[in-house]
Amino acid sequence: MGNDKALVYGIGNTLIDIITSVEYEDLEKLNLSKGIMQLIDSNFREQLVEFMKDKTKVYSCGGSCPNTMLALSMLGVDTILAGKVGNDEFGKNYHKNLIKFNTKDELIDCDQATGSSIIFDTPDSERTMNTYLCANRLFNENDINEESIKKASYFYFTGYMWDTENQKNAIKKALKISKENNTKVVFDIADPFAVARYKNIFLDLIENEIDVVFANKEEARIMFETDDPVENCIKLGKICETAIVKNGIKGSIISYKGKIYNIPVHGSVNPVDTTGAGDVYAAGFIYGLCNNLSIEECGRIASILAGEIISQVGAQFTDKNMQKAIDLINN
User: Fold this and answer.
1) Homologous superfamily of 7-14+64-113+135-330 in CATH?
2) Structure confidence at residue 59 (pLDDT)
3) pTM higher than 0.85 for the full model?
């Protein structure tokens, strides 16, 4: 870590989000479980594209880690995003988006199509994500820029990276470089299904490699097999110095060096769209860390950002909504 100003390096799935509204019955017809992320193949993707053809759709650059990096950039934090996109229109748009948000671009082009996530919003504002990784699957350890990690204050990644061997090996290399260079590691579990698949691996990872970990109440429940989010945060805090459990409309719980902080929810309990809420929560918390703020203040800022992003459609702030969030942070 060689600079005074904080720098955050992220590796993530670069996806084009395709968002549309559906009814609960639509999910049943498509045999989809509400509120989760699943990886899909090209055949099922075509089926979903056909289903959506007459619906109003919103397109935006997405992916869990990219959402966090772009929100951090809007808050004035220096960020780098590593990943893989296709040499296609979606890929070109992704490069342009990073320029727009002032995020350093370490995306690598390849001959596969840019990944996408078809997101169905139900009337309760929950999102059901159907992710086609495509180009993302090819990101590997040779794509890591070692110098960028050496310069970074924080390395950020999510549990989604464990779904392919290439990406998993890239993360392992980045973790090794981080440890050798005192770069702090921030991990967002990001998906309950990821916990179900990799529970013991994640527990070992959190205990031995991670400085800050985020989980939502469902991820924590699966990890520790108990329903109490506070108890689960305490357990998570025993294996990681800074542990956060997001508890929906009840706010969030933070364990820092064994002390528990309860952070109230900010904003509406009737969201427009929950896409990206956890991602920008992470951005707010990391922003606080980058500015050497107290853990409680980190949580407050995280809660403000999450509360504001759910008042709009899509996972990236409009300039107007980000300015509103910044004004709230500064008050």
Assistant:
1) Ribokinase (3.40.1190.20)
2) 85
3) yes
